[in-house]
Amino acid sequence: MTRADRDEERDERIEMRIIVDAYTAEEQAMGWYSYLDDTLAFPFDARCIDEREESPLREGEPVRW
Questions:
Q1: Cα distance between residue 55 and residue 38, in whole Å
Q2: Which residues is 63 bridged to in the sheet?
Q3: Which domain of life is it from (predicted)?
Q4: How far apart are CA 44 and CA 26, in angstroms?
């Protein structure tokens, strides 16, 4: 999905589950922190899917978080 593409169902899910009652950027960040802390099991394996100039990762490179 490109940045211009919007998934309305996904946006609604984020608003209702992750950043509900968050009015400032700080509150939204804490909502994300709480959601990810509850949802992700650490450590987990991931793989870089896109190279970016600001990142040292290369496409296809495995990452362990």
A1: 27
A2: 46
A3: Archaea
A4: 26
- At 17-62, the pLDDT tens digits run 888 888 999 999 999 999 889 988 888 899 999 999 999 999 999 9
- Domain extent, residue 46, equals 8-64
Q: Is residue 1 part of a domain?
A: no
Exposed/middle/buried for residue 35 (C-beta within 10 Å: 0-12, 13-18, 19+)? middle
CA dist 28 to 21, 32, 39, 46, 50, Å?
Answer: 9, 6, 16, 24, 26
- Quick check: is 2 in a domain? no
What DSSP state is assigned to residue 12? Answer: H
pLDDT at 4 over 70: no
pTM: 0.54
